[in-house]
Design brief:
Radius of gyration: 16 Å
Oligomer: single chain
Strand order of the largest sheet: 1-2
Number of strands: 2
Strand content: 5-15%
Shape: elongated
Distance between the termini: 29 Å
Structural class: mainly alpha
Number of helices: 4
Helix content: 25-40%
Order of helices and strands: HEHHHE
Length: 139
């Protein structure tokens, strides 16, 4: 993609052995925040001044990366819907959290605060995004 003139921003997700049950809920917003930081950093790269059209930002994401793309497009995670998703089989993390003695009812609402970004993505491709049940409508 870079050879075709595209700038590619790829966050480094944690290694599987770095994710604990205590950190998994943080990862929902950390991944999207890392992408936001990468996009904002582009504005300060001198070699890109004048050559980066931030109105033409597209995203591709798989699994949690897909959820991050949706969040960068304006979707929000609802803490109420996240909690309710653990009452069904919609949230793939809930059993793992329960098995590690994490009570989702004790997760503070601020873990699900909306991602504030001035650079919403123009278009996204998401493949099997995680946590779609607790997503609020995309604005």
């Amino acid at each position: 993609m870079a050879q075709q003139g595209y700038i590619v921003v790829v966050p480094k997700p944690p290694e599987p052995n770095e994710i604990t049950a205590y950190k998994v809920v943080n990862e929902i917003t950390l991944r999207a925040s890392a992408l936001k930081l990468g996009l904002n950093t582009l504005k300060s790269v001198e070699a890109l001044f004048g050559g980066t059209d931030m109105g033409e930002v597209f995203g591709v994401g798989f699994f949690l990366g897909g959820t991050s793309m949706l969040m960068l497009s304006g979707a929000q995670i609802s803490s109420e819907k996240y909690l309710a998703s653990c009452d069904s089989t919609k949230n793939i993390d809930c059993r793992w959290l329960r098995n590690n003695n994490i009570d989702v009812a004790t997760i503070p609402d601020e873990k699900f605060r909306p991602l504030q970004t001035e650079n919403k993505l123009r278009s996204v491709v998401v493949i099997s995004p995680e946590l779609t049940a607790p997503l609020l409508t995309i604005r």
